[in-house]
Amino acid sequence: MNICDSLKKRMIELVKDNHLENEAVRVKIGTLSVKQAIGSPVRQDFPLLQGKEVMIEAQVMDSFGQAFTDKPKEFNGSLKDILALSLNTNDNRAIFVATLNAVVSHLKMVTGTRHCHDEEPEECAKRIAEYVLENSGKIKVGLIGLQPAILDNLVHTFGNENVRCTDLNPDNVGKRKYGVEIWDGKTDTDKMIEWGDVILATSSTINNNTYNDINKTAYEKGKRLIIFGVTGTAASALLGLERVCFQPH
């Protein structure tokens, strides 16, 4: 089943089981400023700072949930309205995922549904590289979605000959970052998954509708898939996906 269909099924259950379906729950989503989303890190090449992706935030009662997207759209409505959304566009998927993150936060099923700030992304990236090393040893790592701090730390830990990266941003494709050529996410991701031992994928792949193909290929090739970031908070909790995110708020 498509991951968003699975998540929608679980959200319907959560809303019904917790008697939220008839509550006048208002969901407000608006694009966050860069300062609100990530603070002021020393490193200036994060996608958020380059304006290629933005963070949206949903509020459900007293709880918040965030999600990365390249198609931000504001929304005001109820949880019923969210459940009625068609999940066939990036903007609707991002609204749904951010809202689901807020719902599971409200229900105390998870903590940490907001992005880290300032120098925390750097610390998180370091710990991600350490996590892979501690759990898998010196292996080949594929990174889906250029996150500069993570790529930098993977190269430092595993060597650039053992790291590959794909990205959907055409401004990045073909360029070398930290000694690694950035491959085209549209055409080279399957090749990278076959090459790597462990695959790290940004959880915004859920919103841009590439996660299902990535997961299918990783499963068929017998490769370990780990998602990272706050976008996948609810997905990892509800579906048992392996996720790393060490400095969430």
Reconstruct the topology from this structure.
Blueprint: H1 3-17, E1 27-31, H2 34-38, H3 47-50, E2 54-60, E3 63-69, E4 75-77, H4 79-84, H5 90-106, H6 120-136, E5 141-144, H7 148-158, E6 163-167, E7 176-177, E8 180-184, H8 189-195, E9 198-202, H9 211-221, E10 224-228, H10 233-239, E11 243-244
Parallel strand pairs: 5-6, 5-9, 6-8, 9-10, 10-11
Antiparallel strand pairs: 1-2, 1-4, 2-3, 7-8
Helical percent range?
40-55%
Q: What is the element string, with H for helices and E for strands?
A: HEHHEEEHHHEHEEEHEHEHE
Q: If classified by CATH, what would the architecture of the largest domain be?
A: 3-Layer(aba) Sandwich
Indicate the overall shape. globular
The total strand number stands at 11
CATH class of the largest domain: Alpha Beta
Number of helices in the DSSP assignment: 10
Mean pLDDT: 88
User: How much of the sequence is in beta strands?
Assistant: 15-25%
Reported by name, the CATH topology of the largest domain is Rossmann fold
Note the main sheet.
7 strands, mixed
Low-pLDDT sequence parts: none
Report, as a whole number of angstroms, the end-to-end distance.
30 Å
Descriptive overview:
The chain has 249 residues and is an alpha/beta fold. The protein has 2 domains: 3-106, no CATH class; 120-244, Rossmann fold (3-Layer(aba) Sandwich). The protein has 10 helices and 11 strands. Helix 6 runs parallel beside helix 7 (148-158). The longest helix has 17 residues, at 90-106. The two termini are 30 Å apart.
